[in-house]
């Protein structure tokens, strides 16, 4: 006799048995993951902080308070303070357009957003040199009007914006697509304008996704090396960001100072991971 519920119960039991691994296998997988984290995350972090404090707290503080280091920190903060808000505006606008509307060129826009992921940061820096350098396409005109982009702060900001602009958009696009357009359409039917719908319906629904994207964008902006290295000119005390300053100190065999400044980036990474975890938890909770 065929029992209608028998097949479903058997399938569920089979799936349950398939999802349950022996204790030895589970412990092996957990141990492998912990060993991987220890080898590639915890050990390097411990090495950075141990080398940074090798000569004591006084030497550590002195390395960070050194004028060139302070200039590098200031330039890094200023660059991120310009790049992140611009990428936030672009990311939210692009994600809103792609997820909520149909228009020609949508696929091309998505391809452009993914472009920095497929182009080496060094190549993107070279592109700016070819455009704005002394021998570049716009170089003679810029020199004639006394406008300096390459080997100056504007070039560093432009390079940073290019390598970081996908982060906010790429976090928001799938989130907005998953939420659909029902709430926006309901708000429009009730008489809300486009801006009212955007600020009162769309933005509140994706606020944690925005925070998540901004966190990743800021971390990449402060830690970017390749593109900034090409366009900065490595002018000490002028166009060196924190990663470039660390490289200079390391090449001068000033290891304690190099690791001391590098520990600031390590702290930034730890804070980023912590805030990122909170944002992910909030996003899963609201979903």
Task: Give a nutshell description of this structure.
The chain is mainly alpha-helical and 287 residues long. The protein contains 15 helices and no strands.
How would you explain this protein's 3D organization?
The protein has about 290 residues and is mainly alpha-helical. The chain is built from 15 helices and no strands. It has helices at about 5-20, 25-50, 55-65, 65-100, 105-120, 120-130, 140-145, 155-165, 165-180, 180-190, 195-205, 205-225, 225-230, 240-250, 255-285. Helix 9 (about 165-180) packs antiparallel against helix 12. The protein is globular, with a radius of gyration of 25 Å.
Q: Which tags fit this structure?
A:
287 residues; mainly alpha; 0% strand; globular
